[in-house]
Every structure is written in C-alpha cells, then in structure tokens.
Amino acid sequence: MKNVLRHLMFALVSALLVINVCAQQTYQKPALEQTGSWSMIMIPDLQNYVKWNRNQPILDLMMAWIEDNIDTLNIKMVICVGDLIQSPEKITNDYDGDQTTRRQWAAVSNAFSRLDGKVPYIAATGNHDYRIDREGNRYTQYSEFFNADKNHLNQKILVQNSRDEAGEPTLANSAYEIRGLNGKDYLFMTIEYGPRDTVLTWAKRIAAMEQYKDHRIMLTTHNYLNAEDQHTSGEVGWLFWEPYAVDNQILKSPKVKLPNANNGKQIWEQLVQPANNIELVLCGHISGEGYRLDKNVAGKSVHQILFDAQSMGGGSRSGNGGDGWLRILEFFPDNKTVKVKTFSPLFGISPTTRQFAWKRDPRNEFTFYFDSH
After folding, report:
1. pLDDT at position 242, please?
2. Element (H or E) spanning 183, and its range?
3. In this predicted structure, what is the pLDDT of residue 317?
4. CA angle, 292 as apex, 288 and 293 as ends, to 5°?
5. Cα-flanking dihedrals φ and ψ of residue 201, to 5°?
6. What pLDDT, on a 0 to 100 scale, did the predictor assign at position 314?
7. What is the pTM of this model?
8. What is the CATH number of the domain that holds 291?
9. Which residue has the higher pLDDT, 309 or 243?
10. Where are the alpha helices (DSSP H) in the chain?
11. C-alpha 32: how far from its chain's center?
12. Which terminal residue of the chain has fewer beta carbons within 10 Å of its beta carbon, N or C?
C-alpha cells in the first residue's frame, strides 16, 4: 500500500512540474488576435508609482513596453484615467511617499515623454492632481507638465478644448480626432475629475456637433464607475492638507465639497446618456475592476469600464505602485468587436514571473461589441 501511495505521490508531483513547465513554455507575449486590428492602451491610476523614488522605474518600464509595442500592437492611442500624482502640495517628509509634489509631476511627465512623437496619449486628471482651498476652489500644476507642446502627435489631432477653473485653456478638458481607423472616425474626449457644470455643458455641445455625428466618441474621466459596476454618487469633494504634521502624518481637513462638481451618475445623466455617439467610457479612481452596459437616448449600447490597480502590488504605503498592470483594448477590423486584456510588463519581462503576467478572470479579460459599424 505504501508503495502504491509513493508512486501516486510521485506521479502527482511529476504532473504538477510538467504543468508548470508547460505553462511557462506556452507563455504568449501580447499580440493582436486579428490582422488589421488596432489597439488602445488603458493605464490605471499612477500615484503610487510616482510618490516613491523606488517605484518610479516600474512606471518607466510600463512606458518603455508601450513604446516597444506601438508597431506590433498597432497602438493608436494611450489613455491614463487620472491621479497622475499622489500629493498635490507636498514639500515635507512624511509616511506617504518620499517625493515632493514637483518631483512627482516631473516623474510622471518624464515617463510619458517616452511616447512623445511616437503615439498620441491622454492624461486625464484625478482628485490627487488638484489642491484646493477651504472653499473647494481647485488649483493644479497639470498644465505646466502636460500641455499642447509636449507631444506634437497630440497637438496634431487636438480639435477641441475647454478651460480649467482659473479660466486657462487645458488638456484636462479636450478632444482628439482620429479619422479612418478601419474606416471609422473616432473622437477621444477627456473631462476633469468631478467635472464642473460648465465642462459638462462644453462636452455635451462637442458631442452634438454636426461634424462629429458619425464619430464614435471615447470618453475618459476619473470618477465615474465603482467596483460594483454602479455609477458613483453622492457629493464630490476633496481634502485640504493642513500645514503641519503630527506623528509623521500631514493632517487633512474633513472632505470639502467642490462647487458645481458632478459625480458619475450625474455625468451619465447629463452627458453620456443624452448623446447618441458616446459609446465607451473609461475611468479609474476606485481600486479594482468594473464594467457596465447601458443604452443611451438613441438606444445604442454604451460600454463603461473601470480599471484601477493602485491597491495591487502591496497597496499604497509599502507596495510597488500596482504591479505594472495595464490594459490592452484590441479593436477588430469589423469595427464592432473589442477584446480587453489585462497585462503586466513587470511580470512579463522575466521568465521567472511570466506565468503571472496575464489576468485571465472574466473581470479582466472579456469581449464587448459596439452596436453599429
């Protein structure tokens, strides 16, 4: 009996070793599934990469991977869903990162510089990208580090923009036009975190313009969907950092309401649902994944996707920023089918970790379909 058990145990261990070896041997690096497809890269919240000096190389690796795969994946657009930095008014040392605000902005801007002149990209704004006063008025250094002159491929396709709270033109509220992707015209639009009423009015007018009536609009905003696949609701607010630290922690005010700001439910009701050509919404802000399908006023499907990996890789204090996760959206030549895959260049770079480089569960790898060509 003992010999039988010994042989069974040996067979089981051998089978597991074979499975493990095969899994490594059958690793497939990212590739298009269909000839003629094009792809878009979705980058989740970045604040936990840039706030620590040790984590910044992971963000650089992610951008280097995108740069290396522009041709092989036929990448036409790169979209980050916001929270480019962690601390909007940091000059002191504390428990939540070792990089000042300016160093954080410089790090994320330099990382995106790998793509300058090679592929267009959208860097949306999140709540962490703004500092506020006690009345909720917003201020940001975004336009100093992300502006129309940074990437000439952005400027080449930039067709619309609105203003920030100071009344200055900004890419935080902007739209980019790419024509003829497999015969379909696209408008890539982004609006600020908790968009003000004036921004929603601007975006709604852009979507309704005659010149874009046959375009497929991709909207990016930071706070829109939660991990339970529901539109975010409630008061939109942010924090005022107190000017002193206690036990190595910068004190924070209670949440301050942002004047005239809109949550995900309001964005849906006032902008997305009334439009007949917004067919995809991308967002971050809330850790995890989400997907929701609704019909707009024209009865057309609107696909809404949340992806935020900031809590992966150990979390915000002691983690690596998010394990390098990003998403590849492949748009098939039929102009209807989109395959979503979740991949980590950090894990994919080494044979030791390649078995972890893909998230294969249904929340992270799935297919959706647009209604019309």
Report:
1. 87
2. none
3. 81
4. 160
5. -60, -45
6. 87
7. 0.92
8. 3.60.21.10
9. 309
10. 2-25, 47-50, 56-68, 101-113, 142-145, 152-157, 197-207, 264-267, 315-318, 345-348
11. 20
12. N
The neighbouring-strand residues paired with 40 are 77, 329
Question: Looking at the 3D structure of the chain, how many domains does it have?
Answer: 1
- Give pLDDT, residue 36: 96
Element (H, E) at 134: none
Q: Average the pLDDT over 204-230 and give the result.
A: 97
In the predicted structure, residue 249 carries a pLDDT above the cut 90: no
Chain mean position to CA 99 = 22
Distance CA 102, CA 96 (A): 15
- Report helix, strand and coil shares of the chain as percent, to nearest 5: 25, 30, 45
Query: What tokens appear for 40 in the block?
Result: 């878009």
| 20 burial level (CB within 10 Å; 0-12, 13-18, 19+) | exposed
| DSSP H or E segment with residue 328 | strand 326-331
Token pair of 5, please?
């058990």
Beta bridge mates, 261? 196
Structure-model confidence comparison of residues 118 and 241, the more confident one: 118
How many contiguous H segments (helices) and E segments (strands) does the chain have?
10, 20
Percent of the chain whose predicted confidence (pLDDT) is above 90: 86
CA atoms within 13 A on the CB side of 339: 16
Residue type, 306: L
SS3 287: coil
CA angle 307–311–313, rounded 5-degree value: 110
Domain range for 20 is: 2-369
**Residue 372: per-residue pLDDT:** 72
The answer to whether 272 touches 7, Cβ cutoff 8 Å, is no
CB 342 within 8 A of CB 364: yes
> The tokens of 55 are what?
């984590």
Q: Which helix (H) or strand (E) holds 72?
A: none
